[in-house]
Write a structure and sequence with these properties.
mainly alpha; Arc Repressor Mutant, subunit A; Penicillinase repressor fold; 3-stranded antiparallel sheet; 3 strands; elongated
C-alpha cells in the first residue's frame, strides 16, 4: 500500500464491510454503515467516490448496479497502519511498543503467550 493510501477512520469502516463480504452494492454498504455509524446513503456514495479516486475500491457494473470490491488487502492496510504508528509514536521500535503495553498492563496472559509463540517461531525461522 502506497504512502498516500493511508486509510482514514471512515475508510476503515467501508473497507471492513468490503473485506468481510465482497462485493457489495451501494445500498448494502449504506444499510450496513447506517446501522454501524448512522451514515446516510449520500455519505457512503461520496466516500466511495473518493475511495475509488484513491484506488482503494473499484466497482463492476451488474446491469445498472455498481458492485464494489476492495483494491487493498486488509493485511497490507494493517501493516501500513502499524508501521505508521510505530514510526510516529515509538521511533520505529517494536520493542518500545511492546514494553509500553506490558508496563501499562495492557497485555493479557493469553496475549503474552501468543507473543511468546510468535517470537519462538520467528527465532526458529531465522536459524
Amino acid at each position: 500500500m502506497e504512502k498516500e493510501k493511508n486509510l482514514t477512520p471512515s475508510e476503515w469502516r467501508v473497507m471492513d464491510c468490503l473485506w468481510h463480504s465482497p462485493p457489495m452494492t451501494l445500498m448494502q454498504l449504506a444499510d450496513a454503515l447506517s446501522a454501524a455509524a448512522g451514515w446516510r446513503k449520500s455519505t457512503v456514495a461520496t466516500l466511495l467516490s473518493r475511495m475509488e479516486e484513491k484506488g482503494l475500491v473499484r466497482y463492476e457494473l451488474s446491469g445498472r448496479t455498481r458492485r464494489y470490491f476492495p483494491c487493498v488487502e486488509k493485511t497490507d492496510a494493517a501493516l501500513k497502519e502499524t508501521t505508521t504508528l510505530l514510526d510516529r509514536a515509538y521511533q520505529g521500535s517494536l520493542g518500545l511498543l511492546v514494553s509500553t503495553m506490558v508496563e501499562n498492563k495492557a497485555v493479557s496472559k493469553e496475549e503474552l503467550a501468543a507473543l511468546q509463540a510468535i517470537l519462538q517461531k520467528a527465532e526458529e525461522e531465522i536459524k
